[in-house]
Write a structure and sequence with these properties.
The protein is α/β, with parallel strands linked by helices and 384 residues long. It contains 15 helices and 13 strands. The chain has 2 domains: 126 residues, Aspartate Aminotransferase, domain 1, CATH 3.90.1150; 232 residues, 3-Layer(aba) Sandwich (Aspartate Aminotransferase, domain 2). The strands form 3 sheets. Strands 3-9-8-7-6-4-5 form a 7-stranded mixed sheet, with helices on both faces. Strand 7, helix 9 and strand 8 form a beta-alpha-beta unit. Bound molecules: pyridoxal-5'-phosphate.
Length: 384
């Protein structure tokens, strides 16, 4: 590829309204941030509980740096396995109520590592069409036969399972769909596991710390369980820190330690990041009020936008899309909102299907009611 090709690709992206650029957030994450010196209400962060800049979480990280230094220096399997990694895995295991847990350096890596470690050419993977890009990429890398079923359509999923003669069957679904804010129908999927000899992976990136009475995620929220379910969770969203985990049976974790390439071939998470996550779990367990505030704030925004006639799809969580359709219109709306002091990122293909661009609002527990009122007013002024 020469430089002319790069320029051509860039101009194609610009012409179709799909060129992406970076915005600089000045200072820490929070319900309001500074961009270009202007204070804006932040409505596109996954720091749902406001833990990314929480004083106790920061102190835990600083103390861990003093004790353990900054970097882990090597992969876990070489010499990078340190006390905070073990302590965090114990904490996750307790939080999730599973036999074991294994850290990964991000949710992207956890999906790639787990799905590809469990699959080969004799595997059929059944993947929801709206699953996150990391699952899509994991399916490609897995070499398995990938069968995609329409979003949350359990009847279609069962049809595919019935027709599958594969020895190994793996169902993969987001717990909360990252661009729609809808919840996977796990109550209907779980009975299929024994019926068709399948294993289920639930990506709880947006539900860990958020959904369920104790914040344990989608399974707790829906009151479903099965001993073979594999749960992925991220630590960079509601936990306010960084990294991710796979939680499940002890033998699963044993296998991943030997087979999951993104676990084996990468430097371990910095120990202070693990200490920050441990503290975040403590806060999540100690303060159910954070989840309540998040839910109240989300309900308010969803209700207001819905009753103004805006299409928020079937969102039932803190992720609230407002369908705008066209990519250019979406980015113009996002800019107009920024001018009014509201930061909501526009989401375009390939992240969402063609013609389904949207403003993706994410609400935080720490948003003040007054700011949400102002933001809703601005959204209505821009879109209606
Ligand atoms: C559903 C889902 N899975 C996985 C990921 C990746 O997680 P991480 O940001 O920790 O890589 C995301 C992140 O956006 C996500 O939305």
């Amino acid at each position: 590829m020469d430089h002319t090709h790069i320029l051509e690709e860039l101009s194609k992206l610009t012409a179709s309204g799909l060129k992406r650029t970076l915005k600089l957030v000045e200072g820490p994450q929070g319900p309001k941030v500074h961009i270009n010196g202007q204070e804006v209400i932040l409505l596109c962060s996954n720091d749902y509980l406001g833990l990314a800049n929480h004083p106790e979480v920061k102190t835990a990280a600083v103390r861990a740096i003093e004790t353990y230094g900054v970097g882990a220096g090597a992969s876990r399997l070489v010499s990078g396995n340190m006390e905070p990694h073990i302590m965090l895995e114990e904490r996750i295991k307790r939080f999730k109520g599973t036999e074991a847990a294994l850290l990964f350096n991000s949710g992207y890596n956890a999906n790639i590592g787990c799905i590809s470690a469990l699959s080969d050419r004799s595997t059929d993977i059944f993947s929801d069409k709206l699953n996150h890009a990391s699952i899509v990429d994991a399916c490609i890398l897995s070499r398995a036969n990938v069968k995609r079923y329409p979003n949350r359509d359990v009847e279609s999923l069962e049809g595919l399972l019935k027709r599958s003669a594969a020895k190994k069957k793996l169902i993969v679904t987001d717990g909360v769909f990252s661009m729609d804010g809808t919840i996977a129908p796990l109550g209907e999927i779980v009975p299929l596991l024994d019926r068709y000899g399948a294993t289920l992976i639930v990506d709880d990136a947006h539900s860990t710390g958020v959904l369920g009475k104790s914040g344990r995620g989608t399974l707790e929220h829906l009151g479903v369980s099965h001993p073979s379910i594999i749960q992925m969770g991220t630590l960079g969203k509601a936990l306010g820190s960084f990294g991710a985990f796979i939680a499940g049976r002890a033998e699963l974790i044993d296998l991943l330690i030997s087979r999951a390439r993104p676990f084996i071939y990468t430097t371990a998470l910095p120990p202070a990041i693990c200490a920050a996550s441990i503290k975040a779990f403590d806060i999540i367990e100690r303060e159910p009020g954070l989840r309540k505030a998040l839910q109240e704030n989300s309900d308010y925004v969803r209700r207001e936008l819905g009753s103004a006639g805006l299409d928020t799809l079937d969102s039932a969580t803190q992720i609230i899309p407002v369908l705008t359709g066209d990519a250019k219109r979406t980015m113009e709306a996002s800019k107009a909102l920024m001018d009014k002091g509201v930061f909501i990122q526009g989401i375009r293909p390939p992240t969402v299907p063609e013609g389904a661009s949207r403003l993706r609002i994410t609400v935080m527990a720490t948003h003040a009611k007054d700011d949400l009122y102002k933001a809703v007013k601005a959204i209505k002024e821009v879109l209606i």
